[in-house]
Amino acid sequence: MPPPVRYQSPDEDSARWFGFPFRPGDIVISTRSKSGTTWMQMICALLIFQTVDPPAPVAELSPWLDWLGTPRAEVYALLERQEHRRFIKTHTPLDGVPFDSRVTYIVVARHPLDMAVSLYFQSLNLDRARMNKLTGRPAPAEPPAPRPPLREWLLSWIDDDVAPHEALDSLHGVMWHYSGAWERRQEPQVVLVHYDDLSADLGGEMRRLACRLGITVADEIWNELVRAATFEQMRDRPDRVAPAMAGILKDPAAFFRRGTSGAGVEVLTPEELSHYQARVAELAPPDLLRWLHGGGRGTAPA
Predict the structure, then answer these.
(1) Has 177 been annotated as catalytic?
(2) Which of 108, 77, 41 is closest to 242 using CA atoms?
(3) pLDDT for 71-102, tens place per residue?
(4) What domains lie within the chain, and their CATH numbers?
(5) Which pLDDT score, from 0 to 100, does residue 299 have?
(6) What is residue 234's DSSP assignment?
(7) What's the gap between Cα 216 and its chain centre?
(8) Residue 208 to residue 215: CA distance in whole angstroms
(9) Which residue of the set 84, 91, 172, 293 is catalytic?
(10) In contact, 294 and 285? CB cutoff 8 Å
(11) How would you class 180 by CB atoms within 10 Å of its CB: exposed for 0-12, middle for 13-18, buried for 19 or more?
(12) C-alpha dist (Å) from residue 124 to 72, 134, 142, 177
């Protein structure tokens, strides 16, 4: 196994994973932004603690290891103190996280256009000055330019040729993350989950995850756990579920904006959608694209 790749951005550094002391049973949740990260963290919390009211907010139970807003030593100390089965958040692709045969790596994927639309609105909900302060960056000399309208921004996002290592939330970066996980989907430690499958059959997907994680849940509490993992229930509890991120979210409740699929397709014309399809065909294999765009469980390993 080659050494992990280092991914860096103004807010994250995957080098924080290098030398991390894993424990047997650890879970790494590896996603792109706005692709179901918090949803999967909540599902893991429900399965591990087997109560609709886990003992702490999700962001505390499942810290974001590579985010620069919290000192590395503080995150390591929090994880060291945890006595429960640990489930750790990252936006780093699998090739940037050390591989350990005792660990389960869950990758959640979402239709890239839906992810991009959600990212667009998420950006409007971030306190950039607070982010700069926490990550040690100087305040910009001038205020940022106004963000263009959604459709214009989305078309630019599709055509942006930035290298994936320089911008993992670009279309190229998204497909890089998903392609790497797709190549490893047959490995017993890797679990692929599609956002649309969580939407269509939350109970079934939670059963599949419980099986892959070796967790048994009593029948009498199962329906309560599934209900607690629904988008509606999570949206009603932003103080317990939404990422804390030290006050960076202007409105934690707005973090759960829509939760359904199709927003990206709704924005673009048929010709623009065809252009998008041609673009992603350059970046990923056809079987991955069929699964990614169709949310088809039948093409991914059970």
Answers:
(1) no
(2) 41
(3) 999 999 999 999 999 999 999 999 999 999 99
(4) 14-299 (3.40.50.300)
(5) 47
(6) H
(7) 25
(8) 10
(9) 91
(10) no
(11) middle
(12) 27, 18, 18, 24
